[in-house]
Amino acid sequence: MTAAFAVLALAAAGCGETSNEASRDDSSKGPAGSSYKGKGIGLAYDIGGQGDQSFNDAAYAGYSKARKEFKIGGVDMEPGDGESSADKVQRLEQLARQGYDPVIGVGFVYAPAVEAAAKKFPDTTFGIIDDNTVKADNVADLVFHEEQGSYLAGVAAAKATKVKHVGFVGGVDIPLIHKFEAGFVQGVKSVDPKIKIEKRYLTEKPEEGGFSSPDKGQNAASGQIEAGADVIYHAAGLSGQGVIQEAGSQKKWAIGVDSDQYKQKALAKYKDHILGSAFKDVGGAVYDLTKSVVEGKPMKGEQRYDLKSGRVGFSDSNPKYREMKDVVAAVEKAEKDIIGGKVEVKIVP
Asked: What residues have CB less than 8 Å from 244, skipping those under 6 apart?
């Protein structure tokens, strides 16, 4: 990882920490001819941090690509254990004060912090992923039609199951994750209304570890497999690693989320059992916002990505998936139907 910690004198866990693989911060100020005056990208991770093989890692991919392409510096920061909203505000304000632009909060939990920091630093562009409640001239709300990718996951699961029994594991019982469940269930039922669907949320609140506890994901997957499910879709961040590990160990199908989890090194042992992933291109959103700032035309307001934009979809990296021609055909048809307006995907289960 290429992030700097020398430039930030951070107080321990309360403010969060830079990546433990951090290195020097580039002094470049953007590509030749650019009027960009910022120091680079400031990226603040969500619960689970960098290395979750999913949501946060997707953000890092966009951060890394933008830094390389635009020849700018950057720092990416981990959340602290049990941190407060005030800690998040301090983190974002410190990044802005140091001259980073844009400053991006990865996850809806940053909404209050982004709102507060944006008011204090009106000349800095802030971005927040998975929240559209912050309204300010210097804030871009980077949000997705997660339910559309989840619908494709549901179609794939319904076509791949051999026992007409599938499962959904959500990290936290909140409206954002309800969208994943809603799309998945609708996709499954579009293929066969009689398919049984196991559903499980790991925790009621984010701070209880629903997005950061692989053991909870593993236990949930074990229970669903014991109940009879042979395909399990997770929307659980780092906890989803446990879902994939358990499904792979029992030679059942798992469906990943956010990133193309078939390609994640930490999950390589189980990749043959990752049917695909309902991805949302968080990295692409980070890249888009950075590009707009570097080019002097900062994005602002709600930026909603969907299947048509290519920022949401279903990955097909697993050769075993591509060999299942009937599954692939059904997913491709579903994608065309959504883009064409024939199918409207629900956002509430």
From this structure: 234, 254, 256, 261, 267, 270, 273, 274
Using left for φ > 0, alpha for ψ between -120 and 50, and beta otherwise, residue 231 falls in: beta
> pLDDT of 109-161, one tens digit each?
999 999 999 999 999 999 999 999 999 999 999 999 999 999 999 999 999 99
CA dihedral for 29, 31, 35, 40, sign (positive or negative): negative
Cα–Cα distance measured from residue 309 to residue 176, given in angstroms and rounded to the nearest whole number: 20
Instruction: Give the DSSP per-residue string, 147-174.
Output: HHHHHHHHHHHHHH-SSSEEEEEEEESS
Q: Which residue in this structure is represented by tokens 């196991």? A: 198
pLDDT classification of 84: cutoffs 50, 70, 90: confident
Three-state SS at 265: helix
Strands 312-314, 274-280: pairing kind: antiparallel
